[in-house]
Design brief:
- The complex is a heterodimer.
- By secondary structure, chain A is of the alpha+beta class.
- Chain A is 37% helix and 27% strand.
- Chain A contains three helices and twelve strands.
- In chain A, a hairpin with a 5-residue loop joins strand 6 and strand 7.
- Chain B is globular.
- Helices cover 77% and strands 2% of the residues of chain B.
- In chain B, a hairpin with a 2-residue loop joins strand 1 and strand 2.
- Chain B contains six helices and two strands; from the N terminus they run H-E-E-H-H-H-H-H.
- The chains are: A alpha+beta, B mainly alpha.
- At the A-B interface, strand 1 of A face helix 1, strand 2, helix 5 and helix 6 of B.
């Protein structure tokens, strides 16, 4: 019976089935993986080489067109970025200017006894020994010589010279500037003088008056140069020497003169020139 | 004629730069004076006969924009003009040296005149403080800026004086 089944043909088929099954078994069991890898690696390498060459070949013919398109798009985008950046800068400048103007407006509303004209600072004095600024409003805007100039923080100075569309302001830090002041809390009066270095000092305070560091100084209105009750500064130090009639001190101005960008001119105050009365 | 126009326009540009930029660049309390530097550099390059007239224009413009008494720029700028004529005649081969020497001298003279004027106006001036905090820093800034301003005017001079400038 067996010899009848083991015909050469059946035997060949059986061997083939056993070989295939054995191979499948070995492959599924992982025993043929090294052999498979070893045999397939040349094909993978060849395939990679071919794919790379193809991509290079494809790029060689397609890239110039893509590059030109990309460059054009890049230029357009760069232009838009530059335009947007310039708009951002302009808007930031407008915002900063608006904030300053809103602050000045608040100050003007909270001090309704005066009429104000807002002006932008457009320049500073040439000489470092003098403390002046130039604003963009002049006599054609109704400004007159001697009008006081303030910010929301306090006193800045007074108009020294005018042309139709600009004015020069003498700051209270100028060496020739003198402001009559009083203490905010007590009826003590004195003078605040500027200096060549741009600092301000308190002077002519009679000995015996109680003046303390930190006291706030305001304009007294004496002399007719400035209206009363405008903040000037805060006392930093006081000196009282023997055998002198007056105390002196250094003052921290309330206005930051190094960063002045906009000011208010008090237009309804006429300063009085009393210099002819001074002997 | 064209050199006067160049000088006039250049001075106006320098004035705008001075008022808006250089007056705010402070070293201690001192600042550079590029108007003075421009006048010095221009006087060293310009050999025209009526340069003194242009210098008077410079004085007028400065007087218009600055609170300085008119005689200070008048003395300093005309002094620069006369000394520059001497320098052109004697050491014209080294214009940069002339620029530096004139910058040093003119800055000191201008500072002395300004301080003297303030002192005469009965203002209490601490000279040591003014020297340390204004004069010396301003002098340093002027000396530093003298070289670029000289180079700028030299370039400008090629267009202003088309027949050639030795400086």
């Amino acid at each position: 019976m067996i010899s009848k089944l083991l015909t050469p043909k059946n035997l060949r088929n059986l061997i083939i089935i056993l070989v295939v099954a054995g191979t499948l078994f070995l492959a599924l069991s992982g025993y043929l993986t090294p052999l498979f890898s070893f045999s397939i690696s040349p094909f993978i390498s060849a395939q990679s080489w071919l794919a790379q060459r193809y991509l290079a070949f494809s790029d060689f013919f397609n890239s110039p067109r893509d590059m030109a398109t990309l460059r054009a798009e890049n230029n357009v985008l760069n232009e838009r970025v530059a335009m947007l950046q310039s708009e951002i800068v302009a808007l930031q400048e407008n915002l900063a200017q608006s904030e300053i103007l809103y602050t000045l407006l608040d100050f003007a509303r909270s001090n309704p006894e005066h009429e104000y004209l807002a002006a932008t600072v457009i320049g500073r004095e040439v000489s470092p020994y003098l403390q002046y600024i130039i604003i963009d409003k002049g006599s054609s805007d109704g400004l007159r010589h001697g009008m006081p100039v303030v910010t929301q923080q306090g006193l800045v100075g007074r108009i020294d010279a005018l042309i139709p569309n600009a004015a020069r302001i003498q700051l209270i830090t100028d060496a020739n500037s003198v402001v009559n002041v009083k203490l905010q809390t007590a009826q003590v009066e004195g003078l605040v003088r500027g200096s060549v270095t741009g600092e301000i000092n308190l002077d002519m305070v009679p000995v015996g008056n109680e003046v303390e560091v930190g006291d706030v100084l305001m304009t007294s209105g004496l002399g007719g140069t400035y209206p009363p009750n405008i903040f000037v500064g805060q006392i930093l130090t006081m000196q009282s020497r023997e055998n002198v009639l007056f105390q002196t001190g250094s003052v921290q101005p309330v206005v930051d003169f190094s960063s002045l960008s906009a000011v208010l001119v008090i237009t309804n105050f006429d300063s009085i020139n009393i210099s002819p009365l001074i002997p | 004629m064209i050199s006067y126009l160049f000088g006039f326009a250049g001075y106006l540009v320098m004035l705008m730069l001075q008022l808006s930029v250089f007056s705010q660049w402070k070293m201690l309390a001192g600042s550079a004076d590029i108007l003075l530097l421009f006048v010095i550099a221009w006087c060293l390059h310009d050999r025209s006969k009526y340069l003194w007239l242009l210098v008077l224009f410079f004085v007028g413009i400065t007087n218009f924009a600055s609170a300085l008494p008119v005689y200070i720029p008048l003395i300093v700028y005309l002094g620069v003009y006369f000394v520059s004529r001497q320098i052109q005649a004697r050491i014209w081969q080294t214009p940069l040296l002339g620029m530096l020497v004139l910058t040093f001298a003119a800055s000191l003279v201008q500072s002395a005149l300004t301080l003297g004027t303030i002192f005469v106006q009965r203002v209490d001036v601490t000279f040591a403080d003014a020297l340390n905090r204004i004069t010396l820093p301003s002098l340093l800034l002027n000396m530093l800026l003298a070289i670029p301003v000289h180079a700028l005017v030299r370039e400008l001079a090629y267009y202003a004086f088309p027949k050639g400038v030795e400086a």
